[in-house]
Amino acid sequence: MGLFSAEQLVAATCDEEQLKLVAADVSDHFNAQGYSISVLPVNGGQQISLHKGGTLAMLIGTQLDLRVMLTSTAAGTCVECGVGIIGQQAIPTALSLLLFSPLIIVQLWGLAQQSGVDDQAISVAAASILKHGVKL
User: With contact defined as beta carbons under 8 Å apart, do 106 and 38 qualify?
Assistant: First the structure.
């Protein structure tokens, strides 16, 4: 899935409507922090895409693009975070190494920031699942 991924199984089950409420809670949380959000229903769950950063950030490889998947299973509700398509940093990193060596520090900071956002997304989603879902 890229440079990192994180996953947590929450001991509560959610139906489709409850997953929509969880996705709305996660979206509202990150929208308040200035993220662009898109939510798509996927087979058995919800996919939330979080984006932050403009064209320049994308070109130098520091744009944040996180994908959050919410899926319900018999064992509970799974929250999985990973780098989205734009967030794949290999090509921008290679270009930056060749052209903009001083910007590597900025990229590393961007990756570190992105790594913390996945923990935040999992925390918000887990709290919402426990609020809206049926505890096991």
Answer: no
pLDDT tens for 83-116 read: 765 444 555 655 565 555 555 555 555 665 566 8
β-strand pairing of 76-83 with 5-10: antiparallel
Within the chain, residue ranges assigned H as helices are 16-31, 55-60, 90-99, 104-132
**And the tokens for 23?**
């996705």
Q: Give the DSSP H or E segment for 67.
A: strand 64-73
Burial class (CB in 10 A: 0-12, 13-18, 19+), 2: middle
Which amino acid belongs to residue 90?
A: A
pTM of the predicted model as reported, rounded to 2 decimal places: 0.76
